[in-house]
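Fold it.
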Amino acid sequence: MKKLYSVARRFEKFEGNEPFIALELNPERKRRRHLTGDEPKRLYQVLESYKDRGEEEFKARCCVLLYLLTSARKKEWLDTPKEWVDLETGILSLPDTKNNEPDEKILPVAAIDILIELFERHPNSPWVFPSPRKIGFPLENIKRHWNIIRQEADIKDIRLHDLRRTFASIALSSDISLDQIGEILNHKNVNTTKGYAYLINDKKRIATEHVAENIIALLTEE
């Protein structure tokens, strides 16, 4: 409500004192949640059963796995046209990100296999995840399916963004440095130079592949 009044004042839709101005707000606690214990395995078991339930379910399953394997933010896959994806070089080129900067995401082999299957299913769509209802538009969200998936996997408090944290957590346990993780996640404080760009890409690929292999092993272990 406080935000609502602030916006109304900015657009001159409200005059006077904001009713919440004197209230002491509780400080926001930073969320620190990622998949732990046998949660990755439970999630994967549900995703494996989910892929055969229908086309929308198959897309949702692919989307969740791509979030987990590439550390992408939510909209970085849903809004992605196929032309940004280079399957030969294994790179997703994002012209703009949350940081207002372009980014190149390394695609591990497991992610490329998922993308190949998606492209084969929808060869005429320009989008990685085409909308089933709006022809020519991308899929808006997988919220309904994600709610079903996390309910069945008994991970009800896990959000899609927490899969990004899970990537970072597994990366840390895989002996990937914090600087390298920041580079993979496209955090703004990464200090790089153009002269070393090719070395950074090689290191990013090795690191991303290593983390993806560990994620697959964790998901599929008996």
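The chain is about 50% helix and 5% strand.
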